[in-house]
Amino acid sequence: MTCRQCLQLLGPYHDGELTDVERVVELEEHLEACPDCSRRFEELKAVSGAARQQAPYYTAPPELARRIAAPRRSATPWRWAAALTAAAAIVAIALLIRQGQNRLSGDLVADHVRSLQARHLFDVASSSRHTVKPWFQGKLDFSPSVPDLSGAGFPLLGGRLDNVGDRPAAALVYMRARHVINVFVFRGPSLERADRLDGFNLAEWSTEGLTYAAVSDLNQPELVQFAHAFRSGSSD
Amino acid sequence: MVLRNLDAAYNLARWLLGNDADAQDAVQESSIRAYEALHTFRGSDPKPWLLSIVRNQCRNRLRGQARLIPLDEGAGEAPGPSPQDMAIRSWEGESVRDAIESLPLEYREAIVLRELEDMSYKQIAEVAGIPIGTVMSRLARARNLLRECLSVSEEAK
Questions:
Q1: Which residue does chain B place closest to A84, by CA atoms?
Q2: Closest in B15, B20, B44 to A99, CB measured
Q3: How far is B137 from chain A (nearest CA, A)?
Q4: CA torsion sign, A48 to A49 to A51 to A52?
Q5: B84-133 pLDDT tens trace
Q6: Where are the alpha helices (DSSP H) in A15-136?
Q7: What is the mean pLDDT of residues A147-168?
Q8: In this complex, do A17 and B1 lie within 8 Å of one another by their Cβ atoms?
Q9: What are the domain boundaries of chain B?
Q10: Residue-wise pLDDT tens digits, B21-59
């Protein structure tokens, strides 16, 4: 390696950005043999170290966080607090949705597939919502809607406890023809969307702080129809 | 998202704009922009995305200032150090800060993102909207300038 090449790579080497092992070996050999380049490397370390240790890191003043979260107009204190909470919630939820969407879909599809493969679809097998809904009592800190959708062509088969990511979830199992529909109910981000992953369709919505996610190999229009029926059935 | 990265946003704005009031305004404006543009965010790491908004916001402000007060370069809260002042300082906090502040904008931003924010070349490229190769050359140039600046003060001690 020439000095010129060495000097060009010193920065990336120092920053851990030189990933080509052969280049790293060549560069280190060169540094051992060449006092000039070695001195330059020491200088580089000193400059970088000085910037890291001596330059001030300006942390945001507390009032800036308040300015960002606060509403534009002045308001009564409780309104102000409510608006601040709402703004923080919006920010947090938006972040969760954007960051978590792909991972969430992956988790949901994996849970769906696992439930089919393990042949563990139900902890409680019943086509009656009056059996399935109370079964979750005491097992979760929320109570999922379990509408009767047999009239719409989606009979209930049962329910079980499951997890979505690291969140406890109720899984409700419905059927359409020979397609199993898992509806995962959990405390999650507020969202409303349809997705498709690995050949499975997903339909998600939120009510009363709970996320409902229907996953199935059923085609998308029918799954959307299911989601509509579920939501209108829940409100009875 | 903004609140989580508030220190990073403020630190960058403070370094690029040189004073607290402008930095706060720029970050507040950026948070509104970020919220409006949230649907354009793709990927898993919001920090570079957010900082690129802050960076652009700062640049817009600097451009606006340049039009209004063309000769205001560096005249912020205090008068800049004279060459003699620079020369008698060692590599202490103040001289390092002055040295970084004296760097042209794109070098200053590279140093802040790399050394203070500890971002990878890829993240810096995303913030600054430049190829990774340019990040590499800017950073090298920035460090050389810093070294020269600091060596002058060292030798003269």
A1: B3
A2: B44
A3: 8
A4: positive
A5: 444 334 466 678 899 999 999 999 999 999 999 999 999 999 999 999 99
A6: 21-33, 35-54, 62-69, 77-117, 129-135
A7: 89
A8: no
A9: 1-76, 80-157
A10: 999 999 998 988 888 887 777 777 888 999 999 999 999
SS3 for A170-206, per residue? EEEEEEECCEEEEEEEECCCCCCEEEEECCEEEEEEE
Q: How many residues does chain A have?
A: 236
Min distance B143 CA to chain A CA atoms (Å): 7
B80-157 folds as Arc Repressor Mutant, subunit A (1.10.10)
Cβ-in-10-Å burial (0-12, 13-18, 19+) of A217 comes to middle
Q: Round the average pLDDT of chain A to a whole number and report it.
A: 84
Pairwise CA distance, residues A134 & A170, whole Å: 12
Within 8 A of A44 by CB-CB distance, chain B residues are 143, 147
Q: What is the pLDDT of residue A112?
A: 87
pLDDT of residue B146: 92
Residue with tokens 């649907």: B39
8 A C-beta contact, residue A181 and residue A214 = yes
User: Which is more confidently placed, A61 or A234?
Assistant: A61
Q: How far is CA B141 from CA A27, B129, B132, B137, in A?
A: 20, 18, 14, 6
Task: Band the pLDDT of A70: cuts 50, 70, 90.
Answer: low
What would the pLDDT profile of A217-229 be if each residue is shown by its tens digit? Answer: 998 889 989 999 9
* Minimal CA separation from B44 to chain A, in Å: 5
Pick the CATH number of B1-76 from 3.30.590.10, 1.10.3720.10, 1.10.1740.10, 1.10.246.130: 1.10.1740.10
A92 vs B41, higher pLDDT: B41
Q: Which amino acid is at B92?
A: E
What are the boundaries of each domain within chain A?
3-54, 90-234
Among residues 26-55 of chain B, which lie with CB inside 8 Å of chain A? 27-28, 31, 35, 38, 41, 44, 46
The class of domain A90-234 in CATH terms is alpha beta
**Average pLDDT for residues A153-158, to the nearest whole number?**
91
Classify burial at B104, counting beta carbons within 10 Å of its beta carbon; exposed 0-12, middle 13-18, buried 19 or more: exposed
Q: How many interface pairs between A and B have CB atoms less than 8 angstroms apart?
A: 105
Distance CA A212, CA A234 (A): 11
Q: What's the rounded Cα separation, in Å, for the pair B100 and A135?
A: 65
